[in-house]
Amino acid sequence: MQIMSILPEWILSHGAASIVVIPLMLAVLTALNPNAKLAWATVLGVTALSVFTALGLLIQVMTHGPIHYNMGGWVPPLGIGYYIDGLNAPILLLISGVALLCTIYALPSVAAEVEPKKKGPFYAAFLISFAGLLGMVVTADAFNVFVFLEVSSISTYVLVAMGASRDRRALTSSFNYLIMGSIGATFFVIGIGFLYMQTGTLNMMDIARVLQEIGPGDRVVQLAFAFIVIGLGLKLAMFPLHMWLPGAYAYAPSFFTAFLAATATKAALYLLLRFTFTVFDPSWDYIATALMILLSGMGILGMLAASLQAIFQNDIRRVLAYSSVAQVGYMLLGIGMATTLGLTAGYLHMLNHAMMKGALFIAVGAFWYRFGITQVSDMRGLGKTMPWTMAAFTVAGISLIGVPGTAGFVSKLKLAQAAAENGWWWAIGVIVTTSIMAIIYIGRMIEQAYFQPVPEIDGKPVVRNEAPMAMLIPLWIMAAAALVFGIQTEWSTSLAEAAAHVLDAGPNTLIPGAIDALPDAGGH
Amino acid sequence: MATLFEHFNFVVVIVLMMTGLYVVFASNNMIKKLVGLSVFQTSVFLLYISLGKVVGGQPPIIAEEDLHHAPEAGAGVAKAGADAAHAGAGDVAHGAHEAAEVLYSNPLPHVLILTAIVVGVATLSIGLALVVRTREVYGTIEEDEIDNLDYHKNLEGAAK
Questions:
Q1: Is residue B119 located within the same domain as residue B97?
Q2: Which of A152, A175, A448 to mutate to probe the B interface, most B CBs <10 Å?
Q3: Do B46 and B117 belong together in one domain?
Q4: Cβ contact (<8 Å) for A171 and B133?
Q5: What does the domain layout of chain A look like in residue ranges?
Q6: What is the pLDDT along chain B (160 residues), one digit of tens a residue?
Q7: Are B97 and B112 within one domain?
Q8: How many domains does chain B have?
Q9: Does the interface ipTM go beyond 0.90?
Q10: Residue B32 sits in the same domain as residue B97
Q11: What DSSP state is assigned to residue B158?
Q12: Rounded to 5 degrees, what are φ and ψ at A456?
């Protein structure tokens, strides 16, 4: 209660809207801003404000329960409603926090990778992408989700293509992402169309209510579910729909790769959770089957196949990108179990993975910034030439492997427990196998960095050249988070449990209160 | 067969959707891919517009005289309530009944699809901009030729 009183009034009353609207509006100013430093400062201010707002919203949700916000005062289902509960409040904080840290990192990184006159528009595109991700997470209107999905995606295509000044393959990667992403978003919107056809509403709470009346037998609703799952599957890089991801992660500017890897798939994954568990009903036969066969099955296949592919890559960022596909597999495995423990594990892995991958990609960007390193074989001697950066990389790397005492271990252990509880012993085998594969692909880099001699240029060994502070600080905050959440597990676990609690309640989380509070729109 | 004709617009939607997807997957030329994507998206626009159609419904535009008519009718009812013996009460009730019978098509899907069309245009323009840049950098927009040009670079990415 005491924390509530220090929050400013506007967060309590309009936080849900302002977290999306402020970045979106300031993006316009940033695009017109000729001064790159000022543009960067704007982004820094906006992201810091978003972190503050997201924190306020999270506290409000945890103490007072879900927040309903009616955009422009129009009452849902006619107006667009924003809705925040234990499921999406942590994601908001995650996206804002990663955005803030990445923005600090952007100052040196973007200066090195983006042409000076393009910096203003670059930052503007980043703000739009950021606002789009937040909007996807915060809105309770199904069509609004599509709009924000496309807002964030289209700016993401632009930002990925901006990596072309470093590597021309960014262009084709961005194009592939555009084709795949648009197909995914269109599939999603077809699904929403079918849902609208049967329910006559776009508000998630209203859809959930009407779907309960319609029941599980309706063919069109089943079709809608299939389209929505495949559309979101493309967005969240569910194996085998992940083909866009390695290219996009590998050739985007390193600042944006760190942000993208830590947040974009998480927002899509949140939508999958929201739709599958609270809009549809996970107790329906076809949804339970889809969860078990499709999500868990593809999760398992993705873990194995992508980990294997990661081992055979030589570009550091491609290794990490394939590893991301594998980690999405872990999350899908947990979600597919549809038990409280499985959902907790999947959600926890979502939060932990964001910190680990963010740190890894920031470190890789720093390697390139100082020495132009992109290949694993070029990492020789980095333990001596960039000791602090490499140490953070190692911490995040062992967390990715799942060494005890790190965040990755906590979520993998939870996942294994959930699998054991379900009697899926083979799944534990797969978790262990893929962790061993992670030892191979991360260990390969650590071996190069610490156990290979420092390379020589003109007969002299390369001197120590640490990354600038603006890179080290966000890098170490993320790496430290990967350690802290491995030892002090209560915070992250309680967040994940709160989210799992929301999902456990199924469509009931959205239906009561939400609809009762609405005035009877039909009567007027 | 009759069902096919009854749901003629859905048949068109499905044909367009499959054509578009096929073009996206099968063509090698980046611009043709974008054309396929646009056809695919257009099919969704048609799907939504079909949703809004109400059989026998007229365009969802309230004529100006109706707008004025409605409050008058309401006032009439109130007046009729005040003066129960008024002979006009029957006429007013008849008028209200007639107004309720007018069917309108659902305008919401059309509004939604306006947004989706804007999104589609934005996607297409970004895609075309990427094609222009690709042509500047690679000198071709055929994907297999681009792959050939990047062959050695891509080899570096794979294990040696």
A1: no
A2: A175
A3: yes
A4: yes
A5: 284-505
A6: 777 777 788 888 899 999 999 999 999 899 999 999 999 999 999 888 888 777 777 777 777 766 665 554 444 444 444 444 444 444 444 444 455 567 787 888 888 889 899 999 999 999 999 999 999 888 888 888 888 888 777 776 554 4
A7: no
A8: 2
A9: no
A10: no
A11: B
A12: -110, 140
